[in-house]
User: Which sequence fits this backbone?
């Protein structure tokens, strides 16, 4: 059993490190040789300062059981909360997993992001570079995160999660999983290529489960992925383009997705405007009167990693509705 090594990241100065970037620079190591798990426990002791540096994961060695986890136990409960830990990078990604950095077994859980892209190149809350040659058993998981772009910015390219790599990937049995995330307002004036989740050329399988993507230029976008994207129990609502790309770029097993315009991918699509508790106030919990999403989800509780808790903003059966993000 690997030994968990936990350090507290607190921008307000009460932790072991004041930024996720400084934690990474000090802690990057061979977790396999040391038989350890590296855990960054992100918290804000006073709620004053955000974490503004780009955390670039590089110099790691991991495997399926000795991994990296970046998490926060300060729960945002599906509504952006400036009194707890949040990442607010200026002109840069928030978290970058480099394909050569060795962070091939990565979990990002319950982190808030507010992006401000002003450069001409693309920036993301979470940027996942899959290795040029991906070996079986690697994984990347983004779970329970809240991503927005309310800080503004002038760049034509901004993303909540961007999964990308080149055309020479071989095989990967364990997918990238984006689950229980709320992503909203990635849009400047409705004409730019800002996207909630973008999966780019020739990636291994990507699962998008129980996500809510609202008021972006594009909700879910892709660029000829090697394996079609699985999308399940996900709602895209109010985006200029809810579901980009051809139907063939979504796996046929995609199911129970919803949108106010366009046809959701996969079987059992639901169409119509989703009723949220307070859209103007960025509270994307499902309103009790909603008829598009409530009771129209499939049960994913048996999927790995287990659905132990969920976001009230995500689309699901009534037993999952309005539960706390954790």
Assistant:
């Amino acid at each position: 059993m690997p030994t968990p090594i936990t350090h507290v990241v607190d921008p307000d100065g009460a932790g072991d490190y004041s930024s996720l970037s400084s934690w990474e620079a000090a802690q990057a190591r061979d977790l396999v040789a040391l038989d350890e798990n590296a855990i960054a426990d992100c918290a804000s002791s006073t709620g004053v300062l955000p974490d503004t540096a780009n955390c670039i994961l590089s110099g790691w060695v991991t495997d399926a059981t000795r991994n990296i986890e970046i998490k926060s136990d300060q729960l945002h409960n599906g509504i952006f909360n400036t009194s707890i830990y949040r990442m607010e990078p200026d002109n840069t990604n928030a978290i970058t997993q480099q394909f050569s950095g060795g962070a091939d077994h990565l979990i990002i859980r319950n982190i808030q992001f507010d992006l401000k892209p002003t450069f001409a190149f693309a920036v993301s809350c979470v940027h996942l570079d899959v290795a040029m040659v991906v070996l079986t058993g690697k994984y990347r998981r983004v779970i329970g995160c809240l991503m927005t772009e309310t800080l503004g910015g002038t760049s034509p390219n901004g993303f909540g999660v961007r999964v990308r790599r080149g055309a020479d990937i071989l095989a990967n049995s364990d997918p990238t999983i984006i689950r229980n995330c709320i992503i909203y307002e990635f849009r400047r004036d409705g004409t730019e290529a800002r996207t909630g989740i973008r999966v780019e050329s020739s990636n291994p399988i990507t699962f998008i489960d129980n996500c809510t993507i609202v008021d972006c230029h594009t909700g879910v976008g892709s660029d000829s992925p090697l394996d079609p994207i699985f999308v399940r129990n996900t709602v895209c609502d109010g985006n200029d383009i809810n579901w980009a790309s051809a139907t063939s770029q979504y796996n046929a097993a995609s199911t129970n997705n919803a949108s106010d315009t366009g046809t959701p991918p996969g079987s059992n699509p639901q169409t119509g405007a989703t009723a949220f508790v307070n859209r103007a106030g960025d509270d994307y919990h499902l309103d009790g009167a909603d008829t598009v999403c409530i009771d129209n989800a499939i049960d994913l509780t048996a999927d790995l990693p287990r659905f132990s808790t969920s976001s009230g903003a995500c689309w699901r059966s009534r037993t999952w509705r309005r539960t706390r993000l954790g």
Remarks:
- DSSP finds two helices and 24 strands in the chain.
